Amino acid sequence: MFKHIKVVTALILVLAIFAVLQIASSGLFFNALKGDRQNFMLTQQIQREQVQLNAAWVALLQARNTLNRAGIRYMLDANNAGSGSTVSELVAQANQQLETADKSFAAYHHELPDEVKNMAYLVAVDEKYKVLHDALTELVQLLGAGNLKGFVDQPTQGYQNDFEGTYNTWVQTTSTLTAAGAEQNESAYQRALWIIGIVLLMLAGIVVLVWTGMKQLLLRPLKSTIEHIRYIAAGDLTQPIEAEGRNEMSQLAASLKHMQQALVRTVSDVRDG
């Protein structure tokens, strides 16, 4: 079989196999890296969202706490027992905290991709945030109007609990997404290890096959040809030369055989002459 395969053809075939193997492995690794990049970007995006939403939530809690202090101070002032920050100062502080919450929530909303903003758990966060923010703003107005009864009667805790519930749902959902991304990365890593192992095995098999082919196609015929050249150089024209096949080494052997036969005829002519 090897006698009919040209050396150039064999070399081109080997190069083609290595090229296909390289392209295939590169494509698989590219897909793995692409998946890793997407999961990394998703994780980074969720972290940015979480930072801003946490800041908004903390600012709302601070505003609620400040307003409670303002309500207590209002009652103490009514009994001429108040000390420390005044009601107006505490209300101003609460307003600043509400503004901070608005800025952080706007930054959180800016981080959200447009294609996910209509998802139910995100819409719930928006709605419950607005309800709680409006309720705290109303508390500021009630204190400003001196309506302590309205301040106390407002079901602010219920609004806060509702927002906390949607916030916890958001945390659980994003944690699930992050965990899924990490699991995909781990699966991609395991696939990459398998790919590396398979590629190494294929390379080992190809190396063995190429070495076997080179021995049969090039090294053994070349060794035989060199031996015949040495025989001819030593004056031995009786060694049979096999010149079967169509590859380069067979053509070289055929040329050497032709030279041997020509030398035999020349020697015969000299003896007969």
From TrEMBL:
<dbReference type="InterPro" id="IPR004090">
    <property type="entry name" value="Chemotax_Me-accpt_rcpt"/>
</dbReference>
<dbReference type="InterPro" id="IPR035440">
    <property type="entry name" value="4HB_MCP_dom_sf"/>
</dbReference>
<protein>
    <submittedName>
        <fullName>Methyl-accepting chemotaxis protein II</fullName>
    </submittedName>
</protein>
<dbReference type="InterPro" id="IPR003122">
    <property type="entry name" value="Tar_rcpt_lig-bd"/>
</dbReference>
<comment type="similarity">
    <text>Belongs to the methyl-accepting chemotaxis (MCP) protein family.</text>
</comment>
<keyword id="KW-0472">Membrane</keyword>
<dbReference type="GO" id="GO:0007165">
    <property type="term" value="P:signal transduction"/>
</dbReference>
<dbReference type="GO" id="GO:0006935">
    <property type="term" value="P:chemotaxis"/>
</dbReference>
<keyword id="KW-0488">Methylation</keyword>
<keyword id="KW-1003">Cell membrane</keyword>
<keyword id="KW-1133">Transmembrane helix</keyword>
<dbReference type="InterPro" id="IPR051310">
    <property type="entry name" value="MCP_chemotaxis"/>
</dbReference>
<feature type="domain" description="HAMP">
    <location>
        <begin position="216"/>
        <end position="268"/>
    </location>
</feature>
<feature type="transmembrane region" description="Helical">
    <location>
        <begin position="192"/>
        <end position="214"/>
    </location>
</feature>
<dbReference type="GO" id="GO:0004888">
    <property type="term" value="F:transmembrane signaling receptor activity"/>
</dbReference>
<keyword id="KW-0145">Chemotaxis</keyword>
<dbReference type="GO" id="GO:0005886">
    <property type="term" value="C:plasma membrane"/>
</dbReference>
<dbReference type="Pfam" id="PF00672">
    <property type="entry name" value="HAMP"/>
</dbReference>
<keyword id="KW-0807">Transducer</keyword>
<dbReference type="Pfam" id="PF02203">
    <property type="entry name" value="TarH"/>
</dbReference>
<dbReference type="InterPro" id="IPR003660">
    <property type="entry name" value="HAMP_dom"/>
</dbReference>
<keyword id="KW-0812">Transmembrane</keyword>
